[in-house]
Amino acid sequence: MSPRWEPNPDIRRGRSVVHTLHAHLVFTPKYRRGPLTDEILRRCEEIMREVCTDFGAELREFNGETDHVHLLVHYPPKVALSRLVGSLKGVSARYLRQEFPGHIRTYQWGDHFWSPSYFAGSCGGAPLTVVKEYIENQKRPA
């Protein structure tokens, strides 16, 4: 008797493609002065989940500290990762500046919230459970 085949939930199917693409992203605020509070991080995660959904992607994990955020994103091959990153940073910056103007102004000046640079790592080699655990453990104990 052959073993029962179980579909892998990470493998997605499109009309002409079968894929499983994951990226570990790290964004830092401009000047890295630490404007991210727990409340701002929660709102940032909500905004970034919505942006991912708009792109047909899924935000699998999110965590951060006062001076950076980590994301684990599952995205389709039709999405250019640089465009997704641009939207994640642009939309979140706009909403966070609107919703927390006084707090953010004390840490930053000018028109930019996020640093123009970012880290993007392919997660193809590491088991996703390891990457998820790493992101979850980035929050320093109080």
Mean pLDDT across residues: 84
What's the order of the H and E elements? Answer: EEEHEEHHEH
Helical content (DSSP H or I, runs of 4+): 25-40%
The CATH architecture designation is 2-Layer Sandwich
Could you name the CATH topology? Alpha-Beta Plaits
Strand order of the largest sheet: 4-5-3-6
The structural class is alpha+beta
Largest sheet: 4 strands, antiparallel
How many structural units, i.e. domains?
1
The geometry reads as globular
Total helical segments: 4
Strand percentage lies at: 25-35%
Unreliable parts: none
Q: What is Rg?
A: 17 Å
Number of strands: 6
- Tell me the span between the first and last alpha carbons: 54 Å
Spell out the CATH superfamily: Transposase IS200-like
What top-tier CATH class fits best? Alpha Beta
What would you note in describing this structure?
It comes from Streptomyces scopuliridis. This is IS200/IS605 family transposase. The chain has a single domain (19-136), classed as Transposase IS200-like (Alpha-Beta Plaits, 2-Layer Sandwich), CATH 3.30.70.1290. It has 4 helices and 6 strands. With 142 residues, the protein is of the alpha+beta class. Helix 1 packs across helix 2. It is 37% helix and 27% strand. The strands form 2 sheets. Strands 4-5-3-6 form a 4-stranded antiparallel β-sheet, with helices on both faces.
Can I get a quick summary?
With 142 residues, the chain is of the alpha+beta class. 37% of the residues lie in helices and 27% in strands.
